[in-house]
Design goal:
single chain, alpha/beta, 8-stranded mixed beta sheet, 13 strands, 24% strand
Length: 269
């Protein structure tokens, strides 16, 4: 029976922080071998599709679990799409507008950034072409699946609100460890794991025939959801403790090692 494998991007297929901007040739070859054997390959990422690197998009993935499970694509089909509650989004906008906090709306297929938000523009301009973002729009008429925030006014009120959002029943997220004034927020009930289940159901592939590779804390749910979860050697210790296998790090072609050993050899053996 066909299998499906899901891959995180940062720290798993690439490592932008250390100049590794595209997967190695060995990893590319392993992904091609998976597809040649009739299996499916997916990206499972916290990013919207607009944030995916061109080098990733050339790998001909069969689908995408985006924004930590808020949107799931299989081929050209959107098999799951659940934006954040509009009332909640409006409350976040109101707080930000009153406290000098800039924000960006991540959706599918577009990302929306107010043309007046220069701090957020500068933040993203380091690693993305902000010219790809929609800059003029009616924010009341768009669906929002994820938001990111940045401010130079990191006041006690902003710190408290960041903490409240992170600990709410509806939201979860992460703060950038290198820029504490930056925050990402997304739905607590949708995860990479729930997104994987939507994709598997659509393809009629049993969970035991699914695999996942990741390195970070937002990969915990998918590692626990699939039949065989593989943590990267450079991954978070909590993730490695829960994974079925720990493969070498991203700079040691860990994804390729895992594909070869735990999927291809097992299938062909």
């Amino acid at each position: 029976m066909n299998k499906a494998a899901f891959f995180d991007i940062d720290g798993t297929l690439i490592d932008v922080s250390k100049g590794m901007n595209e997967p190695s040739e060995r990893v590319r070859a392993a992904l091609r071998s998976l597809k040649d054997d009739g299996n499916y390959i997916f990206i499972a990422s916290g990013r919207p599709i607009e944030f995916l690197d061109p080098a990733i998009m050339t790998l001909e993935f069969d689908g995408f679990v985006l924004m930590n499970g808020a949107v799931v694509l299989v081929g050209d089909d959107i098999v799951f799409d659940e934006p954040l509650d509009r009332k909640l989004v409006d409350e976040m906008i109101s707080f930000c507008d009153n406290n000098d906090v800039e924000y960006i709306f991540e959706s599918h297929p577009c990302v929306y950034l107010d043309k007046n938000f220069k701090l957020m523009e500068k933040f993203f301009d380091r690693f993305l072409d902000v010219g790809r973002f929609v800059r003029e729009f009616d924010r009341d008429k768009i669906s929002v699946h994820k938001m990111e925030f940045v401010t130079e006014n990191f006041s006690d009120a902003v710190k408290a609100q960041y903490a409240a959002w992170l600990n709410s029943s509806e939201l979860t997220g992460i703060t950038d460890p290198f820029h504490n004034n930056n925050l990402e927020l997304y739905s607590r009930k949708n995860t990479k794991g729930s997104g994987i289940l939507h994709a598997l159901e659509y393809l009629k592939i049993p969970v035991e025939n699914s695999f996942a590779f990741g390195d970070g804390l937002n990969d915990l749910e998918m590692i626990q959801t699939v039949g065989c979860g593989c943590a990267m050697g450079n991954g978070n210790p909590k993730l490695k403790a829960l994974a079925k296998h720990v493969v070498p790090g991203v700079h040691e072609d860990g994804v390729a090692v895992g594909i070869e050993k735990y999927i291809l050899e097992a299938t062909r053996g």
